[in-house]
Design a protein that fits this description.
single chain; 300 residues; alpha/beta; globular; SAM-dependent_MTases_sf; FkbM family methyltransferase
């Protein structure tokens, strides 16, 4: 064990020498310089956290980006605070499969981890549109995009994605911020569950034109999101979709998979960061929870 740690420290020092200690390299440069174990170690080596009085915690993610998270979050935040990344196998997959100048949607952006990642990958020549209907998370998202100087690349909307336009829908809210905070009155608590109101839009009506990439990060509403993007799929033949699928949380998982399989080969992102073929039956019985890659374009 000590020998392996010594080797890893040596690898980190070599990476530091290659990309610098003070201002870490871009994600593309990191992927060029080392393997997954080296990159994860380098990112963890640069983690830092600062608790703030407004109920948020400031941390450093992916080695160089600043991010405000919810201090009460027991899901994503611990990984960001201690490791500096989230679902690295998905992060690495995205780094291989997005290009400069592309247009990407981040649906259910939460803090904006993927919004920031997408913005870094598409660059100033590209565009990212982030949707987050939760008012508290939307505020943190806006702070994260602003503090990293990405306001010119990322457009943020407090909208829920649905099958059609709605003036107001009730959105489940796991994270609500401090009860004494400025957003406390947005949330309603019934039977221990919180919801908040938000306008909704069908993705096919959000903007004109085609889209290169869509991340759907809300498994519980995936049915409604997909139902509202048929027109977007039609006018974006080269679109790639990354979707969080949970057979236990979808309203009609078999119907959702049938709709998707009629358009795209079904693939899931495995722990080695490779998109692998799967069937609807496997997703409904053996796997149940997966990150799906949906596109006519072969993944890298």
């Amino acid at each position: 064990m000590r020998g392996e740690l010594a080797v890893l420290r040596a690898e980190i020092e070599a990476m530091h020498a290659a990309v610098g200690r003070r201002d870490i390299a871009t994600l593309e440069e990191l992927l060029r310089e080392g393997n997954r174990r080296q990159i994860e170690a380098l990112i963890r080596d640069r983690t830092q956290t600062v608790p703030l009085p407004d109920g948020s915690v400031l941390c450093r993610v992916l080695g160089r980006f600043k991010m405000f998270t919810d201090a009460n979050d027991g899901g994503m935040a611990p990984h960001l605070l201690l490791d500096g990344y989230w679902e690295y196998w998905v992060t690495e997959f995205l780094c291989r499969n997005l290009a400069r100048g592309e247009t990407a949607y981040d649906i259910g952006a939460i803090y904006g981890y993927y919004s920031i990642l997408l913005a870094d990958l598409v660059g100033s020549e590209g565009r990212v549109v982030a949707l987050e209907p939760n008012s508290w998370l939307n505020w943190l998202l806006r702070r994260n995009i602003s503090v990293n100087g990405l306001g010119g690349t990322v457009a943020i909307h407090r909208l829920a994605a649905a099958e059609a336009k709605h003036d107001s829908v009730r959105v489940p809210a796991i994270l609500t911020g401090p009860f004494t905070g400025p957003f406390a009155n947005w949330f309603t608590f019934e039977e221990g569950r919180a919801t908040c109101p938000a306008p909704a839009v069908a993705l096919q009506d959000l903007e004109a034109g085609s889209v290169d990439f869509v991340r759907i990060g809300i498994a519980s509403a995936a049915d409604r999101v997909v139902a509202g993007m048929a027109g977007l799929m039609d006018r974006s033949p080269g679109m790639r979709i990354l979707m969080e699928f949970d057979a236990n949380r979808c309203q009609e998982a078999p119907a959702l998979l049938a709709t998707l399989a009629a358009r795209y080969p079904l693939r899931f992102i495995d722990g080695d960061s490779i998109a692998k073929p799967c069937t609807a039956e496997e997703l409904l019985t053996q796997r149940r929870v997966a990150t799906l890659y949906l596109s006519r374009i072969e993944p890298r």
